[in-house]
Specification:
By secondary structure, the protein is an alpha/beta fold. 44% of the residues lie in helices and 18% in strands. It binds 4'-phosphopantetheine. 4'-phosphopantetheine is lined by residues 9-11, 38, 74-75, 103, 106-107.
């Protein structure tokens, strides 16, 4: 029997309720879902990779088939290494589409056997992004309902 392994890659700086919504949908659809945090040496993140992984592990621990990992380099190489056949990405609004299309087609050119699957998070999170969450936290805005409680605590601690 075929086992579907999907990778949900991203920066997750930090994980938001929008990401979690997508993980929950992906968890129902695939046998195994690997949430893969990109180790990007160019970006200046708010949280270290270790902190992001720790938060992700905490908020996904209820799902047995969800794993949190770190990758660097090309996503297609990582997917090959992990035996994944699907890349899962979320599209919130039409503004996401162009970037996602470019990435999906480039990944297809690099590895034609790897399929990108797009899912829509709940419309309640269509305006939500990790960038907006970081900005809100820095400016002391409300975070309830946007991120899990442990992420809210980490954000508050980070900016205090
Ligand atoms: O959460 P993000 O920042 O939108 O995620 C972007 C990510 C990590 C999916 C993307 O930058 C990526 O896959 N980087 C790995 C490098 C790579 O494979 N690049 C070529 C594909 S276009």
């Amino acid at each position: 029997m075929k086992t579907s392994v999907a990778i949900y890659p991203g920066s997750f700086d930090p994980v938001t309720n929008g990401h979690l919504d997508l993980i929950e949908r992906g968890e129902k659809m695939f046998d195994r879902l690997i949430v893969a945090v990109l180790k990007n040496l160019e970006k200046e993140p708010m949280f270290s990779v270790a902190e992001r992984v720790e938060m992700l592990r905490e908020v996904t621990k209820k799902w047995d088939c969800v794993e949190v990992d770190v990758f660097e380099g090309l996503l297609v190489d990582y997917a090959r290494h992990r035996g994944a056949s699907v890349i899962l990405r979320g599209i919130r609004a039409i503004s996401d589409y162009e970037y996602e299309l470019q990435m999906a087609l480039m990944n297809r050119k690099l590895e034609p056997r790897l399929e990108t699957v797009f899912m829509l998070p709940s419309e309640a999170y269509s305006y939500l992004s990790a960038k907006i969450v970081r900005e809100l936290a820095q400016l002391g805005g409300p975070l309830t309902g946007l991120v899990p409680a442990i992420v809210e605590q980490r954000l508050r601690a980070k900016v205090s």
